[in-house]
Amino acid sequence: MQQETSVSTTTTTTEEVTSRYIDFKLDFSFHHFFAKEGHLDLLRDFLNSVFEGRKVIKQVRLGKTERKGDQKQNRKTVFDVYCTGDNNEDFIVEMQKGNQEHFKDRILFYTANLVQGHGKSVEANWDYKLPEIYFVAVMDFVLDESPNEHHIHDVLLVEMRTKKQFYDKLGYIYIELPKFTKTLDELETNEDKWLYCLRHMTEFEEIPVSLSNNSTFKKLFEVAEVTNLTPEEMDAYQRELKRKRDNYSHEQYILGKGIEQGLEKGEHKKAVEMALKLKARKMPAEEIAELTGLSKEEIESL
């Protein structure tokens, strides 16, 4: 990470926590920054930076993050962060740490759940008018078949023949953090600064000078300070941090076993190919077994 002169303050180390600032890419941290009444200015600033002036959000209100299904047996929906804007727009904001099967389907399901919820809360003479609904997904991975030149994807309903927007009240914004590779000196927009902090928060030793004069980012770093967490928050953060490390260790183990098995399969395939060639030359099975490491029974079955 590129070095920059920084504003210094004191720090202490905490068990299991090796960085001064909390990891933004954990569910606990995402809630800590964006889903508390005292931090709504951070959420508003982040959303405004992502929409880049297309929408200007003056205030946000937190809503219930849990939605129950119509029937008792139906699955409930739980959002990371759910809020409404000053024009009653709905915003779902989610941190996704790893890719998963049917990821796009799940996001569509979440917004469909919101649409359905609006239909259930109206009078009998409702005219089907809906509020704007937006899903913002911050992802610590790259989508399959995603173009390399873009780290943000703005997805809308478009009429394919004319390429014009068909419906302007439903949108999805996907942010692929691994593709955001700007250095500290290259940050230009507010969006750049947010994405840089999202990706690199645990690498900072203090707030960079270029961000310290901005009241929003100054508050962001204060909120992110590990030593500012309450004992309950620290306990929750440590638990999730441990879970993240355990998951990573397990993933590395599975990956290593997969590579090992792949190598074993490759070696076995080579041995079989050699055995077939030697067998074609009428070499005795005992000698082929000695040369290839295959069993006599396996060679005879080839």
TrEMBL record:
InterPro entries: RpnA (IPR010106)
NCBIfam families, A to Z: T_den_put_tspse (TIGR01784)
Protein name per its UniProtKB record: Rpn family recombination-promoting nuclease/putative transposase
Organism from which the protein derives: Pedobacter africanus
